[in-house]
Design a protein that fits this description.
Layout lengths: L1 H21 L20 H19 L4 H18 L4 H16 L6 H14 L3 H17 L3 H18 L5 H13 L3 H14 L6 H21 L1
Amino acid sequence: MRSNTMRSTHLAAIALSFMLASCQIPGLPTPEVEPPLEPPLEIEKQEELAENKYIDLLDSTARMHRTEKRDILRDGFKEVIAKYPDSSYAHESHYHLMRAYLYNYDIPMEKEAEEVYESYFRKYDDPKIGNALSLEMAKYYYQFQNWNKLASFTVPFMREFVETGKIRDGLFLFYYSEAKYKLKDYGEALRGYVTFSKLYPNNKMGGFINKRLKEIRHMLGKEEAVQ
C-alpha cells in the first residue's frame, strides 16, 4: 500500500514538473526568435520601388505648407534610404533629408543634418551628390554665421586644393576666406581672397571681394603700426 502511495506521489511530481516546464512564468521575457534575413532586392527592383516612393512623396506634399509636410518628407526620405540603399534615389534622399533638417524646422536640426551628411560619406562615393551635400552644409554654416564650424568644415577642401592644385568649387574657397575674416585671422583671409580673385577674376562677387581686401589691408596696416 505504501509502495503504491509513493509511486503515485512520484508520478504526480513528474507531471507537475512537466506542466511547469511547458508554462510561461509571469514576469520572465519570452525568448524572441530572429526572423530569417531576407535577401536584398535586386538593384533594378530597388530603383523601381524607390522611384515610385520618391515621386509619390513629392507629389503628395507639393501643395502642403512647410510645417505640414516636414515630418512626412523626413520619414519618406529615411524610408527610401533604409529600404533601397542601392538605388540612385537613396543618394538624392540623403541630400533632401539633410536640407529638410536644416530648413524645414523653425529651429534647424543641425546635429541630425550633420549625421545625415556623415552617413552619406560612410556609405557612398558619388562626387556629384557628395559635392552638393558639402556645398549645402557649408552654405548653412555661412548663412547662420557659425564661423568656427565653417572654418573647420572647409579646411579639408583647402588642403586638397594646396596638394593637388584643383578645387572642387570656388565657393569652398570663398566660405573659408569669410570664416577666417570673421574669426579675425586676417592674414589667412587675405591669402584666400587674393587666390579667389586670381582664379575667378570675372566672378560676380568681385566687388564684394575687393571691399574685403581693402578692409583687411587696412586692419593689417593698423596692426603693423601698433607693433
